[in-house]
């Protein structure tokens, strides 16, 4: 007995191209969903870490301000050994206000230089590129 095999149909274990394309599409969809799920979980984990880090940085800032205040009090008390307490506090307070005024002026100048927040050099470069393309596009 001889078996005849239909050469037009897929043999046992072989799959048609349409089945393979369908499987590939399904697997790609699953892969994309899995990758998105993984990315979401990674961002969630990083967000938690960033939140904890920001909270700790805030606490560190408050603690540093308390420490700085204590050091200012120390300077006032040290000056109070040679001057009246009110004069020591006045001198330290005036000195701090002077430092704040200088820092504020320097910061204001830097802020003015940074505004408006447009990448002017990049915009100029793009405008120049557009001009070159226009000139070269003319017949």
From TrEMBL:
Ranges that cross the membrane: 54-79, 85-106
Superkingdom to which the source organism belongs: Bacteria
InterPro entries (alphabetical): Phage_holin_3_6
Keywords: Membrane, Transmembrane, Transmembrane helix
This protein's name: Holin-X, holin superfamily III
Species of the source: Amycolatopsis marina
């Amino acid at each position: 007995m001889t078996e005849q095999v239909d050469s037009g149909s897929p043999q046992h274990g072989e799959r048609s191209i349409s089945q393979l394309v369908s499987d590939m599409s399904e697997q790609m969809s699953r892969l994309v969903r899995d990758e998105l799920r993984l990315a979401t979980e990674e961002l969630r984990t990083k967000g938690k870490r960033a939140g904890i880090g920001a909270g700790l940085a805030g606490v560190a800032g408050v603690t540093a301000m308390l420490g700085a205040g204590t050091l200012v009090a120390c300077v006032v008390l040290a000056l109070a050994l040679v001057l009246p307490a009110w004069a020591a506090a006045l001198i330290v307070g005036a000195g701090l206000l002077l430092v704040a005024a200088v820092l504020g002026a320097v910061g204001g100048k830097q802020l003015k230089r940074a505004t408006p927040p447009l990448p002017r050099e990049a915009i100029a470069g793009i405008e120049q590129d557009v001009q070159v393309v226009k000139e070269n596009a003319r017949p």
